[in-house]
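Inputs:
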Amino acid sequence: MNIIELYQQPQPYLIVAAAVLALGIFGLLRRRTLIGMLIAGELIFSAAMLNIMAVNRFYSADPTVGQVFVLFIMGLAAAEVAIALSVIIAVYRNYRSIKTSELSELSG
Amino acid sequence: MNSLPGTEYIIAGLFLLFIAATIAGSLLAVFTVRVIRSVCGLALTSVGLAGLYYFLNSPFLALMELLIYVGAVCVTIVFAIMLAEPQEIVDESPRHSVLWSIAAIIVCTAIFWSAARLGVLGDWTTPAIRLNDGTIQDIGVSLLSTYSMAFEVISLVLLVAILGALAIARIGRHRHP
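Outputs:
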């Protein structure tokens, strides 16, 4: 595999998508604030979009479908960010904190 | 066609630069302590991903990635950080924290290894024919014909999400004037 034609191979894209997915899941497990977990969730979304685009470019007979699908994912991710941030701000108004260890009223 | 000498090396270098930006941005987003730096990492990841989309023959999605992620999502998260001022202090018991991160590292390495192995060694079949080129014109035609229903439903979802976000943020405001 020549490095000049690397961008015409599907493997680099799939490996980068796998790395971003793993880092996103790691961040979701490690982060202690709600905004940090939201950012990790966005990384997972991005990994899914890159994977869909790579498969769409190299292995799909109709390259339009993946692009339309990724556009829909972007719209859903934007809606999710709006809702999650308003929930985070409401939680901060009530608890004066967005650390996940302090939001434990229901655990007794 | 290639008037500039060494164009292919410049292209390969740009590709590697975008890959490096994606990976470095993800690392920055996950491993920094301050949340504002991890938003910067998310923005860097989005820039790298936009470049990779450009290499994947879809400049329209590259533009959309820049507009939506860097322009909207990151700025909104920065606003939320300014309003909620999260300070991420590591104050858990260190032993529990170390065990938990070792478990997380093992899980994520397993996920990365299996996904990358599936991507590299998987038995993927290349299609015999291409129905179209996936240009902006093709995207527009299929958005307004095949996927018109989903397109409208997405706009409804965005509207409901904005109204819901406004309603949720307003309720908390009445409780603590």
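Remarks. Residues 56 and 63 of chain A are 6 Å apart (CA to CA). Chain A has one domain: 11-100.
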